[in-house]
C-alpha cells in the first residue's frame, strides 16, 4: 500500500511529505493522524533538528477532504480518527523544534493556515493559496484568525479570510505569508539548504529560540482556537455549509443568496 505520508532524514532534517496526490494532498482522518504522530515523533527524536513539510504532486495541500467533511456532517455513523484535525493543530502548536514549510503547489485551507505555525515558509512560483472558509459556510481554523493578522497584517488577513479568493505565490511573499519564492525546480533544494543550516545548530539553542519567540503568542493562539472551534462547531452542518458541500458534490457553485438571510 502506498504510504499517505513519507519520511526521509538527511543532515538532521526530517522531511515529511504529504502523499495523497490524487486528492491534492487533502487531509482525511488517516492523514491527520499520521502527521500528528510524525510531528510528535520528530519532536522526541534527538537525531532530528528541523522538520521540513511539503507535498507530492502538483499540490501542497488542498485542506480538509470535502468528501469526508460531507460524510462527517451527514452520516451519524462516521468514525473519526484518533487525533483528527484538532489533534494535528495541537501537535503543530506544541512542536518545539523549527518547522520549515515548502509549499510546492496549491495550498487551500490548512494548506495555507499551517503557514502560521511555520518558522520559515518557502513557496514555488507555481503555488497559490486560498482560505475557503466563507465559501464553505464555516469559520476560520487553526488559530488563523489570530496568526494571519499577526503575520500579514489585519487587512491582508481580512481579505484572505473574508473573500475566499486565490492569491499567487508572489502576493503571498509580498504580504509576508511566505519568506521566499523559488522556481519549482529549485524549491526543495533551497528548502533543504535552509533547513540544514538551521539543523546544524545545537538543538537546545533551537528550542530556546523557538520557545522565546512563541511564548508571547501561546495564550492568544489557544484563545483564538477556542473561539474558532466554537464557531466552527456551530456552523458545521448549517444550511450554508450543507449547500456548499452539496454544491461541491454536484460540481456547481453554491447559491447562498437563496438561503434565509443569505445563509
Describe this structure in words.
- With 263 residues, the protein is an alpha/beta fold.
- The protein has a domain at 5-187: 2-enoyl-CoA Hydratase, Chain A, domain 1 (Alpha-Beta Complex), CATH 3.90.226.10.
- It is built from ten helices and ten strands.
- The chain has helices at residues 29-44, 66-74, 84-94, 110-113, 144-152, 154-163, 169-175, 184-199, 203-235, 239-250, and strands spanning 5-10, 13-18, 50-55, 59-61, 99-103, 106-108, 120-124, 128-130, 167-168, 180-182.
- It has a six-stranded mixed β-sheet, with helices on both faces. Strands 4-6-8-9 form a four-stranded mixed β-sheet.
- α5 crosses α6 (154-163).
- It is globular, with a radius of gyration of 18 Å.
- It starts with a strand and ends in a 13-residue tail after the last helix.
- InterPro entries: ClpP/crotonase-like_dom_sf, ECH/Chromodomain_protein, Enoyl-CoA_hydra/iso.
- One of its GO terms (molecular function) is delta(3)-delta(2)-enoyl-CoA isomerase activity.
- It comes from Saccharopolyspora montiporae.
- It is found in: Peroxisome.
Structural class: alpha/beta
Name the CATH architecture of the domain at 5-187. Answer: Alpha-Beta Complex
Q: Please, what is the CATH homologous superfamily of the domain at 5-187?
A: 2-enoyl-CoA Hydratase, Chain A, domain 1
Order of helices and strands: EEHEEHHEEHEEHHEHEHHH
Uncertain ranges: none
Global mean pLDDT? 95
Indicate the percent of residues in helices. 40-55%
Rounded Rg: 18 Å
Please state the overall shape, judged from the principal axes of the Cα atoms. globular
Biggest sheet strand line-up: 1-2-3-5-7-10
**What is the CATH T-level topology of the domain at 5-187?**
2-enoyl-CoA Hydratase, Chain A, domain 1
Total count of strands: 10
Proportion of strand residues: 15-25%
End-to-end Cα distance: 42 Å
How many strands, which pairing sense, and closed or not: the largest β-sheet? 6 strands, mixed
- The CATH class of the domain at 5-187 is Alpha Beta
